[in-house]
Amino acid sequence: MLKYKCLVLDHDDTxxxxxxxxxxxxxxxxxxxxxxxxxxxxxxxxxxxxxLGFAELCRQRFHFTDEELKIEHKQWMExxxxxxxxxxxxxxxxxxxxxxxxxLICVVSHSSDVNILRDYRAHLGLEPxxxxxxxxxxxxxKPSTYALEDIMKKYGFSPSQLLVVD
Length: 166
Known about the structure:
The structure is a single chain. Helices cover 50% and strands 10% of the residues. By secondary structure, it is α/β, with parallel strands linked by helices.
């Protein structure tokens, strides 16, 4: 019997290994385009993305404009379409067991829907029950509580029926 009716999973660096192999190298490339000579260590990049979120890291530390963020996102989407990160060992077993036992898988991530769906289909042979991604308006993206509140409302869950892994 399921302990949690819904697993709420982040995508990047929770289900797939992307920060070190995709996001960070691409950001250094973008940083060289927008702010030549500026850099950030992998450790600081990870910490600041978690503390501020990616868009705020770009705005606060590197003073990206909204137009630069739009360009960066467009180029990221082109890049990520040809670079598929591997899943973490064992995550497929966890997700398949959850689904086999009747549970839900919801994704709350800074990735886009298209990338999340591609990775789930390619590596897991299934799709999440719900996705709350970068494609949402910025005020609804994580770390906003919107996704968790919507999941509980949509499926009738209490907080104790969710396990959030990020």
